[in-house]
Amino acid sequence: MVWLFAIATGLIVANLYYAQTLIGPISKATGLDPGAAGLIVTLTQIGYVLGLLFIVPLGDLLENRRLIFIALLTTALALLAASITGSARLFLFAALCIGIGSVAAQIVVPFAAHLSRPETRGKTVGKVMSGLLMGIMLARPVASLVTDAFGWHAIFVLSALTTAGLAFVLRAKLPLRRPEGGMHYFALLASMWHLLKTTPILRRRAAYQACMFGAFSVFWTCVSLELTGPYFGISQSGVAIFALVGVTGALVSPIAGHRADQGKSRSTTLVALTLGALAFALPLLVHSSRLVDLGLLVLASIILDMGVSANLVTGQRAIFALPAEVRSRLNGLYMALFFMGGAIGSSLGGWMFAAHGWTGVLWTGLAFPLIALCIFATE
């Protein structure tokens, strides 16, 4: 079941990131202005935040398997719409809907935590989140490779078919999970504000991850534009290989989860936030030949993904240690808050790249983990 959860979350959340390395070709095909290209990623993340706030809480109210099934079919339809449109407005609307439907992944994660024993919950969540992070990171190289071979439309068609197939597999394999409920939907939503006010660990962990995910989005929204630009001149296949190397950063997730189970969350958080800052400081401080600069970018991508992965799992371990009857709402709030950071990062990144180039992007990215370290200093 852990393997199924890990693969499912990876496949679902990958839908948010296929467009990240394809901003250039999608913008040209739909006539989107280069300065607004970051909207492709930003609107997907905004859709995800809306889903986290208004759909994921239903995991504490409705039967979970049916909720996952409906969300996945919605995502498949939005992906199909994105693949056939030539209009910028319609593509951006489809991107918003892809984000909303992809919150099925965040109904699956509390499902896994619910089925786990308390003493191994962090390790289980770490394994499932490894699948989710592998999905995020593999989405970029897969999208680049498929685009090089068949055009950018193909990845959205392929993903629509995969997501629809996954919906039926999960409906067949997942056990029924019917929460106790006893609360109306609007009362459920109102309770989220109360949970946010009365759960300081949620606010703190969400602030850390919002900064880390903002940095992550700044980097990965713009790095493909830099790599395919005049200085590096790399093809989409080269971008795919670059992104594939960054996937190794996700391997730290189970280690971070295990350390959190041992009560070492604070030291793990400090290391994760420091790695986030280091990822942007390295290419800013060291300038050399084209090959060395490319090597530094590869190293920065691995370090950044390690920091983001470790911090995410450590945060979720803390959230899932809280009462089971509010777990879906807490997870929804946690993910929504840090995805807001991601949306800010992707929109800022696109604008900074257009206005100030790659150096402006690196300084913007560095600001996010530095803010998180300042917050951490008050812990």
Automatic annotation (TrEMBL):
For whether the record's keyword set contains Calcium, the answer is no
Domain of life (superkingdom): Bacteria
Residue spans crossing the bilayer: 37-55, 67-84, 90-113, 125-143, 149-170, 206-227, 239-257, 269-288, 294-313, 333-354, 360-378
Pfam families of this UniProt entry?
MFS_1
Record keywords, A-Z = Membrane, Transmembrane, Transmembrane helix
Q: Name one GO molecular function term.
A: transmembrane transporter activity
Q: Which PANTHER family match?
A: MAJOR FACILITATOR SUPERFAMILY (MFS) PROFILE DOMAIN-CONTAINING PROTEIN (PTHR42910:SF1), TRANSPORTER SCO4007-RELATED (PTHR42910)
The name this protein goes by in its record: MFS transporter
Organism for this UniProt entry: Duganella radicis
